Amino acid sequence: MAMIARVTLAACTIALCAISAHAQSSVEAFYKGRTVELVVGTLPGGGYDLYGRLVARYLGRHIPGQPTVIVRNMPGAGHLRMANWLYNAAPRDGTVLATTPQSIAIEQALGTDGVQYDAGKFTYIGRAAPVVEVTYTWHTSKTRSIADARRRETVMGGSGAASPTVFYLKALNALAGTKFRVVAGFRGVSETELAVQRGEVEGGTKAWASFKVDNAEWLREKKANIILQYALERAPDLPDVPMMSELGLDDRATAALKLFAVGNAMGRSIFATPGIPPDRALALRKAFVDTMADPELIAFTKQRNIDLGPTLNGEALAQIVMNTLSVSPETAAEVKKARGD
Description:
The chain is α/β, with parallel strands linked by helices and 341 residues long.
C-alpha cells in the first residue's frame, strides 16, 4: 500500500508539473509579440501616472512572452471614466491593465453616481506602495495649518467629485470643522498646480511620493505648506503633520474619516478587467511580484526618490476591497452626508 501511495503521489506531482508547464507555455504563446496597455485614469503627472509608468517600464520583461507594455492616459470624472471603461468595454483577455483608483470600493459602497462596475469582480494584480496623500497651500496663502483652515475659508483646487482631491476636503468640512471651498473641474494635479501658481486657488491635494519628486523645488524654496496627510499612520518624513483621521469632531466623525484611509491602503496598485483566464491572471500577479523585486527598478526608485513598498499581492488587495464593500450602513451614511451626496 505504501508503495502504491508513493507511486500515486509521484504520478500526481508529475501531472501537476505537466499542467503547470502547459499553462506557462500557453501564457507565453499568448503574450509573445503582443502589446499590453496600462491605462492611467489621470493626466500625465501625479502619483497614479508616476507609478503606472514605473510599473510599465519593467513589467513586460517578467510576463511570459515578454510583451511590450505601453501607458495610455484616460482622465475624466475622478477616475470613473477609466474604471467604468475597464469594467464594461476593455478586452477581458489580460492585455489591458490599469492603475487602481484608491477609492474604487469606497465609491461603490457609498453608491456614488456614475459608478458602473462591481469592484469585487475586478482582477487585482498587486500594490507597489501604500499612499500618503497631502493637502498643501501655497506660500502666499494665509492658511498654513488646519487651525487656520478651521478659522478662514480656503479656496482649493480639485478634479472630479469621485476624486480624493475633492471629497477629502468636503468630508473635513463636515466632520472636522474646516472651511475649505473646493473649485472642482481641473483634469489633474498638473492643472491644479498651474492654478495655484497663478493665484486662482490657494492649494490642492496630491500624493506625497509624487509631490517629493515633482515639486521638490517647492519644498526646497518653502513655496508650499504641507498642512495635512491622509494615511493609516504618519509618514516618517511628516511626523508633525496631522492625519485626517485624527481630526474628527466626535466618535462617529472619526469612524467616518478612518474609512477614507482604506483608500490609502489600496495605495498605488494595478488591477485589470474581470474575467481574465486564470492562468494569465496568475502569470500577471507573479510578474508584478517579480517586477517589484527587479534590481533595476529598485535602483531606479532609489535614484529618483520614489517610495516603494511595502508591496501587497493581488489576493490581499481583493480582500481590502471586499472588507470595504461590507462597511456598516451607519458609517456609509455618515460619509455620504459629509461629502454632500
